[in-house]
Amino acid sequence: MKVMLLQPTAGISTNDIYVPKYTNPPMGLAYIAGYLESNNIETYILDCYVNKYSIDQINNFILDFRPEIIGITSTTTLIYDAYYIAEIIKRKYPEILIVFGGSHATALPKEVASKHFVNIVCIGEGEKTMLDIVKVFNNNKDFEKIEGIAIWKNNSVVIRKRNNFFQDIDSLPYPAYHLLDFNKYNPKHQWGKNRQWTPIVTGRGCPYHCVFCQEHSIFGKTTRYRSAESILDEIVMLKKNYNKTHFTFIDSTFTENHSRIVEVTELIIERKIRISWNCNSRVDTLPNTRVLIKMRESGCNSIFLGIESGNSEFLQRYKTTTIKQCVKAVVALKNNHINSHCSFMFGLPGENKSTIDKTIHFSKILNPTTASFHIVVPFPGTPLFNLYNREGKIISKDWSKYYREPVIKLEDCSTDELRGLRIAAFKRFYFRPSYIIKSIRNVNNFKQLIDFALLGIRLIFNKIGVGLGK
Fold first, then answer.
1. Confidence check: pLDDT of 470 > 50
2. pLDDT class for 142, splitting at 50, 70, 90?
3. Which of 106-120, 276-290, 404-418 has the lowest mean pLDDT?
4. CA gyration radius for the chain?
């Protein structure tokens, strides 16, 4: 049995192939591959996204590997590219079982399962479901009894959701890192050096209720943690086998469990593991000074904070945080010499030009190490999508536009004005003389200097895309 796991080429369906400047390894596919391999199933990861593979190149890989099952993952933005590839594969190799998974398939399983070239949709976590699919494929092919899938049968879509998640995620094998070409992925400068960086998953699920987030639909509303020992063992393995020294803990909220942070940091210090690392945090889960000091001493050099808005009502309604918590979090990181990277978004329900201006002003008051500004994307499967859809404020359901251009309608702001306000936000934050002087003084390497220079050039010529862009 051979299984190929494929991430689609961006833009292949319109013959306009691109790859974003910053790219991450497909960790979801790597986890599924590791799980399948641990069950003696030969698996191959074909990352068409980062390699910009053409359909002919994809075909050559299929001919070489000869898979019986091809699993295709896709975000909403890339779903048409995934459909395009799958349809051509199915036409050329009708005997191959095509399985779709990922955030879009999980959010809209009926849409995906209704495509004539899709055999099965994998909903949510993929490891157990993919293994079940392989086992059934090898036996009676009675797929509709598998939990965690959607399948077309008798002119309708049958959905069988899996009700249980992996509880002991320490028991999961490591991702199949050996199937990834680490040299292809390009992290942001604050994450780490290109060939020495990798993301690590230390937990799944999130108990919080941000209206714009897809986390719940895939990993559930309860956080499941890996142990500190398991995390450290993986770090040591990656350092030894792949020369990795920079790590991003990509969990939605790494700082939710403070006792586990202490365990992780103490192990790094005790074992004298020389690394740098960063993570995500909510402003209301940032630990106290004692824990922050341990984080810094163990190599933590930056933390990403989703601030989102400078409007207290929006924060309370859509994020369940406060202005005071935002200020306290950024100040705490400054006081403990940890870089802060803050994200802000424009377009939450009730947003207008005045509230956007307030958010831009708030970003300057916070004055984090770096800031990013985004136009809200109401992805399927989120409460925000449902809300905007009910109110008729979604301009387009052309999924290829999602995260590449505005798809929402605001009361007093056109899409062009929304784009302009986002560019203005970057300029107002980064073109401050005090910020420019501070940034030049704090540049640590040539790549960081080039990134800052390129950002400045793009801002001057108004070349900041909405999201993925080119």
1. no
2. confident
3. 404-418
4. 22
- For residue 30, give every residue at least 6 positions away whose Cβ sits within 8 Å of its Cβ, in sequence order, or none: 45, 175, 176, 177, 179, 180
Please name the residues in contact with 203: beta carbons below 8 A apart, sequence gap of 6 or more: 169, 223, 224, 225, 226, 251, 254, 257
Find the DSSP H helices in 271-398.
289-297, 312-314, 323-335, 353-366, 383-390
Contact yes or no for 275/286 (Cβ under 8 A): no
Instruction: Tell me if 373 sits within 8 A of 351, measured CB to CB.
Output: no
Q: What is the DSSP string of 137-162?
A: HHTT--GGGSTTEEEEETTEEEEE--
Chain CA centroid to CA 43, Å = 23
Query: In the CATH scheme, what is the homologous superfamily, with its name and number, of domain 2-160?
Result: Cobalamin-binding domain (3.40.50.280)
Rounded Cα distance between 204 and 465, Å, is 30
Average pLDDT value over all residues in the chain:
92
pLDDT at 449 over 90: no
Query: In angstroms, rounded to a whole number, what is the distance separating the alpha carbons of residues 450 and 457?
Result: 10
Q: Which amino acid is at 156?
A: S
Number of residues assigned to the chain: 470
Residues 453, 419: Cα–Cα separation, whole Å: 22
Q: Output the pLDDT for position 20.
A: 85
> Which fold does the domain 196-460 belong to in CATH?
TIM Barrel (3.20.20)
Higher-scoring residue by pLDDT: 186, 370: 370
What tokens were used for 281?
């945090």
CA 44, CA 404: separation in Å to the nearest integer?
Answer: 30
Q: Closest Cα to residue 429, out of 397, 455, 395, 468? A: 455
Q: Three-state DSSP class for 98?
A: strand
pLDDT of residue 162: 75
Q: Decide: 375 and 346 in contact? Cβ < 8 Å.
A: yes
Residue 453 parent element (H or E): helix 446-460
Predicted pLDDT of residue 201 = 96
Reply yes or no on whether the pLDDT at 380 is more than 70. yes
**Residue written as tokens 């960790």?**
27
Q: Which amino acid is at 452?
A: F
* Domain residue ranges of the chain, discontinuous segments joined by +: 2-160, 196-460
Task: Judge whether residue 228 has pLDDT over 50.
Answer: yes
